[in-house]
Amino acid sequence: MDMCKVTLIGFVQPRDPEARFTPDGRQVTSFSVVCKNIRRGRDGERTEESEWFRVTTFGRLAETAANLVTKGSRIYIEGRFSSRVWQDNQGKDRTSLEVIANEMFLLDSRQRDAQPAGYAGQAGPAPLYSYLEDLPF
Q1: 75: in domain
Q2: Considering its fold, how many domains does the chain have in total?
Q3: CA–CA separation, 102 and 92 (whole Å)
Q4: Going along 41-73, which residue ranges are E strands?
């Protein structure tokens, strides 16, 4: 069995999610997530690297993202990579990778409290934050 799975923990930036609808009425909500990594270089100096990911949600998960996620939200995303081919202004084909989310957890307490109890996207375990809050450290 093959698998293509990605997990992100980061912040929604640089703007609020954008919702739209497919021709058959299914909601699609997209947003960008930035994940920052701090590492030490060979000289021992700490550097911060940022990776940006475009995230797309569908159906009930898209509704939740449109209603609860805002710019600056700390978020956990689980999904799969999908490649998309598009043309730039000069007509040249470009390829981009995006994450198609199937799980989403809001990690901000303000937003987390607004989620339906036990809601973790379309299916799956209880939200991640409930596990984190029970840890003894």
Answers
A1: yes
A2: 1
A3: 31
A4: 46-58
**44 φψ region: left (φ > 0), alpha (ψ -120 to 50), beta (else):** left
Residue 113 lies in a domain: no
Name the residue among 48, 46, 47 with its Cα closest to residue 34.
48
* Residue tagged 């919702």 (tokens): 19
Q: Which of 1, 2, 6 is nearest to 79 (CA)?
A: 6
Task: Please list, in sequence order, all residues whose beta carbon lies within 8 angstroms of the beta carbon of residue 6, skipping any fewer than 6 positions away.
Answer: 77, 78, 79, 80, 81, 99
| Residue 122 CB-half CA count within 13 A | 12
The range of the structural domain enclosing residue 80 comes to 1-11+23-108
Query: What pLDDT, in 10s, does the model give residues 90-128?
Result: 999 999 889 999 999 999 876 555 554 444 443 333 443
CATH number, domain with residue 42: 2.40.50.140
For 87-99, what is each residue's pLDDT tens digit? Answer: 999 999 999 889 9
